[in-house]
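Section 5: illustrative case.
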């Protein structure tokens, strides 16, 4: 490819020689970094926190936390004790046992992290839910997973239809002035009284760890189950890709409701004993730059939408802050525009390293490494120890520069192990030859760089958040005025895509701007703000197949003014 290249970064990096490591690396080497390699006793939370509290890192800061009203710091020793306490609280008052599903539905706060770690110490499976979810989305997830315990806040609990969730036995409320009636328990009060010692539940490497619900193009959101074994890849990619080193101050801007916020907001940094910055509150360019300056952030993992918003806030703003601590910047979640990389070079004097992976892969699979040249527009190369290829629909590997399915050879350490209660769905991701098909199309050049081309299915990536059109369409259809609905992603310069809904109205309804707004609000309050269509277009009729399925492909062609392709299956 005749593209411009950005030379390797200067410095001493954990991964010095990509090609050599790729040829020689074996995952068994990574296993040596865990205490279970000697003791045989496995638990992610022990490896991420307690183990460090027993070493020179005991008084090292594990968590720097701040939001509009709080500013706190916790050492590894304190994190150990507080997660022990949380574990005791969940066990004593929630009856949490190994394998139970414990859901956490709250904005970022230290208590969110204590709860996640505490639940993992009990061998429970943690289900983090993004705070923006409304009742319908919350119910679907708690119901499907048969969650036994929920940790939430007084502000959010009214979105939990407790009476409709028979499996849910206890609800912990984090906050002030909480009345303990029925299933409701005052988390903070119990934390104060709790014992700081806890018997950790030792698990098998293949036991469940975390359940992230994510969207596909059809059906309800599905529960992607990851196991403790994923820590091997979390650790190794935190070293090679995030390049975490002993003195780093690391900031991942993702919320733990999404996979980036757990794999690289919790596990990767703490498995490597790194000081981890977590900020609450909403995105504001000033606050973000201020956080980098105040904490002296050295490694920063964020997303293209955020970088584009920062870019939009202007270069003068960047100059007001001292961002000289930054030494390594990374991105994930959507295509990283070459223009953004060039902007990053200009204002930060640093390359932004794109990485590719997904909820199902559990950890980074393709990346740009500091020791490697960047070809802007490419997502980088496969991580050593994982086989990535472009395959056709039958699992045959395609030659360089041919577009096809971005696929991964089954067996990487952080691979999802189950779609919750849906083994057929799980199997449907794999082609003959053991190729996991990602749903993304891409090509690979002669040098092994992978170039993203688009989603093969209809999944929408808006501001780096993954939204399934089916979930939005289902909610739209619950609105009394909506007869038919089809939802697509419309390209947007800042957000990557925005959600656009095409709606056919019931007979008694007339199109109007007020009705659009009402429908929008209906999705916003029923599902989630980020899932509400930013644009709604009324049509008399939507394109459907003869079997009655909305043809999103045709909607997309309307939107983009492109030919719709094969219409032979469309009803008359
Ligand atoms: C997209 C987020 C282009 C892709 C960790 C993938 C990307 C989906 C990139 C997964 C990238 C992720 N360039 N697209 N570097 N990284 N994607 O499950 O379509 O929320 O399949 O995981 O995001 O989204 P998910």
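Designed sequence:
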């Amino acid at each position: 490819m005749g593209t411009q290249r950005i030379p390797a970064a200067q410095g001493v990096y954990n991964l010095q020689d990509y090609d050599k490591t790729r040829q020689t690396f074996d995952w068994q080497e990574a296993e040596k970094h865990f205490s279970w390699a000697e003791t045989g006793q496995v638990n992610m939370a022990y490896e991420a926190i307690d183990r460090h509290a027993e070493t020179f890192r005991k008084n090292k800061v594990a968590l720097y936390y701040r939001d509009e009203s709080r500013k706190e710091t916790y050492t590894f020793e304190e994190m150990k004790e507080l997660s022990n306490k949380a574990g005791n609280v969940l066990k004593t008052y929630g009856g949490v046992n190994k394998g139970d599903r414990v859901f956490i539905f709250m904005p970022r706060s230290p208590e969110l992290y204590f709860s996640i770690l505490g639940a993992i110490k009990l061998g429970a499976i943690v289900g983090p839910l993004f705070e923006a979810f409304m009742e319908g989305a919350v119910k679907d997830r708690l119901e499907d997973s048969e969650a036994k315990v929920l940790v939430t806040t007084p502000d959010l609990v009214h979105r939990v239809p407790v009476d409709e969730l028979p499996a849910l036995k206890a609800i912990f409320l984090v906050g002030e002035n909480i009345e303990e009636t029925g299933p409701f328990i005052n988390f903070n009060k119990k934390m104060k009284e709790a014992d700081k010692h806890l018997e950790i539940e030792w698990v098998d490497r293949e036991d469940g760890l975390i359940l992230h619900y994510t969207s596909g193009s059809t059906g309800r959101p599905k529960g992607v189950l990851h196991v403790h074994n994923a820590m091997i890849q979390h650790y190794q990619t935190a070293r090679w890709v995030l390049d975490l080193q002993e003195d780093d101050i690391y900031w991942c801007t993702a919320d733990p409701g999404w996979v980036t916020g757990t794999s690289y907001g919790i596990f990767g940094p703490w498995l490597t004993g790194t000081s981890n910055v977590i900020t609450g509150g909403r995105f504001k360019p000033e606050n973000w730059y201020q956080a980098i300056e105040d904490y002296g952030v050295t490694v920063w993992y964020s997303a293209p939408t955020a970088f584009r918003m920062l870019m939009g806030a202007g270069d003068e703003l960047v100059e007001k802050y001292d961002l000289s601590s930054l030494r390594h910047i990374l991105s994930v979640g959507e295509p990283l525009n070459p223009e953004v990389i060039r902007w990053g070079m200009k204002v930060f004097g640093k390359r932004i390293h794109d990485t590719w992976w997904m909820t199902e892969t559990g950890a980074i699979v393709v990346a740009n490494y500091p020791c490697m040249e960047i070809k802007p527009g490419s997502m980088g190369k496969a991580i050593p120890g994982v086989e990535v290829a472009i395959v056709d629909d039958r699992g045959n590997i395609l030659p360089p520069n041919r577009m096809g399915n971005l696929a991964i050879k089954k067996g990487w350490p952080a691979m999802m192990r189950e779609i919750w209660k849906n083994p057929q769905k799980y199997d449907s991701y794999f082609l003959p030859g053991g190729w996991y098909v990602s749903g993304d199309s891409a090509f690979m050049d002669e040098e092994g760089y992978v170039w993203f081309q688009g989603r093969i299915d209809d999944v929408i990536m808006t501001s780096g958040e993954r939204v399934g059109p089916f979930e939005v369409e289902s909610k739209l259809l619950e609105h009394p005025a909506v007869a038919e609905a089809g939802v697509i992603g419309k390209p947007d310069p800042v957000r990557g895509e925005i959600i656009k809904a095409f709606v056919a109205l019931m007979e008694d309804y007339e199109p109007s701007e007020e009705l659009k707004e009402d429908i929008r609000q209906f999705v916003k309050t029923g599902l989630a703000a980020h899932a509400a269509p930013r644009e709604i277009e009324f049509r008399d009729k939507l394109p459907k197949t003869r079997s009655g399925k909305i043809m999103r492909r045709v909607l997309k062609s309307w939107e983009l003014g492109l030919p719709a392709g094969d219409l032979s299956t469309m009803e008359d």
